[in-house]
Specification:
The chain is α+β, with helices and mostly antiparallel strands and about 60 residues long. It is built from three helices and two strands. Strands 1-2 form a two-stranded parallel ribbon. The radius of gyration is 12 Å and the shape is globular.
């Protein structure tokens, strides 16, 4: 999906999350604490086009 490619092209670390995910908050805090420069796209279940992004990412296993 072109939109995902654009979202991640300039960012070395990207987190996509859903409003119901408590793990993404923990991972974000951990990475910030380690000084990682990351980009977070919150609440895919609430934003316009979020469902399509989630579907495009669904075949990818989470890397935590």
């Amino acid at each position: 999906m072109e939109r995902i490619s654009e979202m991640v092209s300039d960012n070395p670390v990207v987190i996509f999350s859903k409003s119901s995910c408590c793990v993404s908050h923990s991972i974000k805090s951990l990475l910030y604490g380690l000084g990682v420069n990351l980009t977070v796209y919150h609440d895919l279940d609430l934003i316009t086009g979020g469902y399509e992004i989630e579907q495009a990412l669904s075949p990818i296993e989470p890397v935590v």
